[in-house]
Amino acid sequence: MGSAKNTGSATRKARIEEMRRADRSRERRGRVLTIVVSGVVVVALAGVGAWAVTKGDDSSKDSADAKSSAGSFKTGADGVKTWTGKLTRNHVAKKVTYPMTPPVGGDHNQVWMNCNGDVYKKPIANENAVHALEHGAVWVTYTDKADPGDVQKLAAKVRQTPYSLMSPDKDQKDPIMLSAWGHQRTVKSATDPDVASFFSMFVQGKQTPEPGAACTNGLSQ
Q1: Which residues are listed as membrane-spanning (predicted)?
Q2: Where would I find the beta strands (DSSP E) of 25-182?
Q3: pLDDT digits (tens, 9 = 90+) for 146-199
Q4: Is the preceding peptide bond at 102 cis, omega within 30 degrees of 0?
Q5: Cβ(158)–Cβ(147) under 8 Å?
Q6: What φ, ψ does residue 179 adopt, rounded to 5°?
Protein backbone atom coordinates (compact mmCIF):
# COMPACT_ATOMS: atom_id res chain seq x y z
CA MET A 1 0.00 0.00 0.00
CA GLY A 2 2.73 2.40 0.99
CA SER A 3 4.59 1.64 -2.15
CA ALA A 4 1.50 2.29 -4.25
CA LYS A 5 0.92 5.63 -2.52
CA ASN A 6 4.52 6.64 -3.09
CA THR A 7 4.26 5.70 -6.73
CA GLY A 8 1.06 7.70 -7.18
CA SER A 9 2.55 10.70 -5.40
CA ALA A 10 5.64 10.58 -7.60
CA THR A 11 3.49 10.40 -10.68
CA ARG A 12 1.46 13.46 -9.61
CA LYS A 13 4.64 15.40 -8.84
CA ALA A 14 6.06 14.49 -12.23
CA ARG A 15 2.82 15.60 -13.92
CA ILE A 16 2.79 18.88 -11.99
CA GLU A 17 6.43 19.52 -12.85
CA GLU A 18 5.68 18.80 -16.49
CA MET A 19 2.79 21.27 -16.39
CA ARG A 20 5.04 23.89 -14.80
CA ARG A 21 7.65 23.37 -17.48
CA ALA A 22 4.95 23.74 -20.11
CA ASP A 23 3.77 26.98 -18.48
CA ARG A 24 7.32 28.35 -18.36
CA SER A 25 7.78 27.39 -22.00
CA ARG A 26 4.56 29.23 -22.96
CA GLU A 27 5.70 32.28 -21.02
CA ARG A 28 9.06 32.30 -22.82
CA ARG A 29 7.31 31.95 -26.18
CA GLY A 30 4.97 34.78 -25.21
CA ARG A 31 7.88 37.05 -24.29
CA VAL A 32 9.68 36.22 -27.54
CA LEU A 33 6.52 36.90 -29.55
CA THR A 34 6.01 40.21 -27.76
CA ILE A 35 9.59 41.23 -28.52
CA VAL A 36 9.24 40.21 -32.19
CA VAL A 37 5.93 42.05 -32.61
CA SER A 38 7.36 45.13 -30.92
CA GLY A 39 10.35 45.03 -33.24
CA VAL A 40 8.10 44.76 -36.30
CA VAL A 41 6.04 47.72 -35.11
CA VAL A 42 9.16 49.80 -34.50
CA VAL A 43 10.53 48.94 -37.96
CA ALA A 44 7.17 49.73 -39.55
CA LEU A 45 6.97 53.08 -37.78
CA ALA A 46 10.52 53.87 -38.79
CA GLY A 47 9.63 53.02 -42.38
CA VAL A 48 6.59 55.28 -42.28
CA GLY A 49 8.72 58.06 -40.83
CA ALA A 50 11.35 57.61 -43.53
CA TRP A 51 8.64 57.58 -46.20
CA ALA A 52 7.17 60.78 -44.81
CA VAL A 53 10.57 62.46 -44.83
CA THR A 54 11.28 61.22 -48.35
CA LYS A 55 7.85 62.29 -49.48
CA GLY A 56 8.46 65.69 -47.99
CA ASP A 57 11.78 65.90 -49.79
CA ASP A 58 10.12 64.85 -53.03
CA SER A 59 7.47 67.52 -52.59
CA SER A 60 10.16 70.11 -52.03
CA LYS A 61 11.95 68.88 -55.11
CA ASP A 62 8.76 69.06 -57.16
CA SER A 63 8.18 72.60 -55.93
CA ALA A 64 11.75 73.53 -56.75
CA ASP A 65 11.44 71.99 -60.22
CA ALA A 66 8.17 73.81 -60.80
CA LYS A 67 9.78 77.05 -59.68
CA SER A 68 12.88 76.58 -61.82
CA SER A 69 10.78 75.67 -64.86
CA ALA A 70 9.22 79.15 -64.83
CA GLY A 71 12.36 80.52 -66.48
CA SER A 72 12.78 83.85 -68.25
CA PHE A 73 13.68 85.27 -71.63
CA LYS A 74 17.30 85.72 -72.64
CA THR A 75 17.82 88.15 -75.51
CA GLY A 76 20.44 87.26 -78.11
CA ALA A 77 22.60 89.62 -80.16
CA ASP A 78 20.11 89.32 -83.02
CA GLY A 79 17.25 90.51 -80.81
CA VAL A 80 15.57 87.13 -80.62
CA LYS A 81 14.49 86.20 -77.10
CA THR A 82 14.91 82.58 -76.01
CA TRP A 83 13.01 81.08 -73.08
CA THR A 84 15.45 79.61 -70.57
CA GLY A 85 12.99 77.52 -68.53
CA LYS A 86 11.49 74.12 -69.25
CA LEU A 87 8.49 74.20 -71.58
CA THR A 88 6.16 71.33 -70.72
CA ARG A 89 4.11 69.68 -73.44
CA ASN A 90 1.14 68.08 -71.71
CA HIS A 91 -2.28 68.07 -73.33
CA VAL A 92 -4.83 69.72 -71.04
CA ALA A 93 -8.52 70.56 -71.34
CA LYS A 94 -8.38 73.73 -69.24
CA LYS A 95 -7.12 77.28 -69.48
CA VAL A 96 -3.38 77.62 -68.93
CA THR A 97 -1.68 80.57 -67.25
CA TYR A 98 1.48 81.17 -69.25
CA PRO A 99 4.46 83.14 -67.90
CA MET A 100 4.81 85.14 -71.11
CA THR A 101 2.50 86.94 -73.58
CA PRO A 102 2.04 85.66 -76.20
CA PRO A 103 3.07 82.22 -74.94
CA VAL A 104 5.92 80.40 -76.65
CA GLY A 105 5.28 76.94 -75.25
CA GLY A 106 4.02 74.91 -72.34
CA ASP A 107 0.98 72.73 -71.70
CA HIS A 108 -1.66 73.18 -74.35
CA ASN A 109 -4.94 71.95 -75.77
CA GLN A 110 -4.87 68.66 -77.65
CA VAL A 111 -6.26 70.40 -80.75
CA TRP A 112 -3.91 72.72 -82.60
CA MET A 113 -4.91 75.93 -84.33
CA ASN A 114 -4.75 75.58 -88.09
CA CYS A 115 -1.45 77.12 -89.13
CA ASN A 116 -1.24 76.51 -92.86
CA GLY A 117 -0.94 80.23 -93.61
CA ASP A 118 -4.11 80.98 -91.63
CA VAL A 119 -4.95 84.59 -90.78
CA TYR A 120 -7.48 85.08 -87.97
CA LYS A 121 -9.29 88.38 -87.57
CA LYS A 122 -10.26 87.66 -83.95
CA PRO A 123 -8.09 86.61 -80.97
CA ILE A 124 -7.49 82.88 -80.70
CA ALA A 125 -7.05 80.67 -77.65
CA ASN A 126 -3.46 80.53 -76.45
CA GLU A 127 -3.79 76.82 -75.71
CA ASN A 128 -4.54 76.01 -79.36
CA ALA A 129 -1.95 78.43 -80.72
CA VAL A 130 0.78 76.91 -78.53
CA HIS A 131 -0.01 73.51 -80.02
CA ALA A 132 0.57 75.03 -83.46
CA LEU A 133 3.97 76.29 -82.26
CA GLU A 134 4.76 72.74 -81.15
CA HIS A 135 4.24 71.70 -84.76
CA GLY A 136 6.81 74.23 -85.91
CA ALA A 137 4.63 77.21 -86.78
CA VAL A 138 5.51 80.89 -86.48
CA TRP A 139 2.75 82.96 -84.87
CA VAL A 140 2.39 86.63 -85.85
CA THR A 141 0.44 88.74 -83.35
CA TYR A 142 -0.43 92.42 -83.25
CA THR A 143 -2.33 95.02 -81.21
CA ASP A 144 -4.58 97.86 -82.33
CA LYS A 145 -1.50 100.11 -82.21
CA ALA A 146 0.02 98.33 -85.21
CA ASP A 147 -0.15 100.21 -88.49
CA PRO A 148 -3.03 98.83 -90.60
CA GLY A 149 -0.75 98.73 -93.63
CA ASP A 150 1.76 96.58 -91.76
CA VAL A 151 -1.03 94.27 -90.65
CA GLN A 152 -2.13 93.78 -94.26
CA LYS A 153 1.42 93.09 -95.47
CA LEU A 154 2.09 90.64 -92.66
CA ALA A 155 -1.21 88.89 -93.39
CA ALA A 156 -0.16 88.52 -97.04
CA LYS A 157 3.18 86.99 -95.98
CA VAL A 158 1.47 84.56 -93.62
CA ARG A 159 -1.00 83.44 -96.30
CA GLN A 160 1.98 82.55 -98.50
CA THR A 161 3.78 80.64 -95.76
CA PRO A 162 2.77 77.14 -94.64
CA TYR A 163 3.37 76.59 -90.91
CA SER A 164 2.47 80.13 -89.95
CA LEU A 165 -0.58 81.84 -88.50
CA MET A 166 -1.62 85.34 -87.48
CA SER A 167 -4.08 86.84 -85.01
CA PRO A 168 -4.66 89.98 -82.91
CA ASP A 169 -3.51 90.00 -79.26
CA LYS A 170 -4.51 93.04 -77.21
CA ASP A 171 -2.49 91.91 -74.16
CA GLN A 172 1.00 91.88 -75.67
CA LYS A 173 3.30 94.79 -74.87
CA ASP A 174 4.47 95.65 -78.42
CA PRO A 175 2.43 96.39 -81.57
CA ILE A 176 3.89 93.51 -83.63
CA MET A 177 5.45 90.35 -82.23
CA LEU A 178 6.61 87.05 -83.72
CA SER A 179 6.61 83.82 -81.74
CA ALA A 180 7.89 80.28 -82.24
CA TRP A 181 8.31 77.42 -79.78
CA GLY A 182 10.68 78.78 -77.12
CA HIS A 183 11.49 81.96 -79.07
CA GLN A 184 10.03 85.43 -79.59
CA ARG A 185 10.85 88.87 -80.87
CA THR A 186 9.38 92.29 -81.56
CA VAL A 187 9.58 93.84 -85.02
CA LYS A 188 9.06 97.47 -86.01
CA SER A 189 7.08 96.94 -89.21
CA ALA A 190 6.17 94.46 -91.92
CA THR A 191 9.24 95.51 -93.91
CA ASP A 192 11.62 95.02 -90.97
CA PRO A 193 14.35 92.58 -92.19
CA ASP A 194 13.97 90.71 -88.89
CA VAL A 195 10.58 89.44 -90.08
CA ALA A 196 12.13 87.48 -92.93
CA SER A 197 15.02 86.21 -90.79
CA PHE A 198 12.65 85.03 -88.03
CA PHE A 199 10.49 83.15 -90.53
CA SER A 200 13.54 81.64 -92.19
CA MET A 201 14.96 80.43 -88.89
CA PHE A 202 11.84 79.20 -87.09
CA VAL A 203 9.26 77.99 -89.62
CA GLN A 204 9.73 74.23 -89.06
CA GLY A 205 13.08 75.17 -87.51
CA LYS A 206 15.36 73.21 -85.19
CA GLN A 207 13.32 74.31 -82.18
CA THR A 208 10.27 72.35 -83.39
CA PRO A 209 9.28 69.64 -80.88
CA GLU A 210 7.18 67.79 -83.49
CA PRO A 211 8.65 68.46 -86.94
CA GLY A 212 6.37 67.52 -89.78
CA ALA A 213 3.22 67.40 -87.65
CA ALA A 214 0.11 68.71 -89.38
CA CYS A 215 -0.94 72.34 -89.51
CA THR A 216 -4.31 71.46 -91.05
CA ASN A 217 -7.38 69.58 -89.80
CA GLY A 218 -7.16 71.41 -86.49
CA LEU A 219 -9.24 74.24 -85.12
CA SER A 220 -10.27 77.28 -87.16
CA GLN A 221 -12.55 80.26 -86.57
Answers
A1: 30-53
A2: 73-75, 81-83, 116-119, 138-142, 164-168, 176-180
A3: 999 999 999 999 999 999 999 999 999 999 999 999 999 999 999 999 999 999
A4: yes
A5: no
A6: -130, 145
Amino acid at 137: A
113: enclosing H helix or E strand: none
Q: How far apart are CA 181 and CA 190, in angstroms?
A: 21
In the predicted model, what is the mean pLDDT of residues 203-218? 98
71 close to 84: Cβ distance less than 8 angstroms? yes
pTM above 0.85, yes or no: no
* Closest to 85 measured CA to CA, from 185, 178, 182: 182
Could you give the count of Cα atoms lying within 13 Å of 112 in the half-sphere of its Cβ? 24
pLDDT of residue 221: 87
The CATH T-level fold of domain 73-202 is Glutaredoxin (3.40.30)
Closest CA to 80 of 165, 172, 183, 166: 183
Which comes out higher in pLDDT, residue 159 or 45? 159
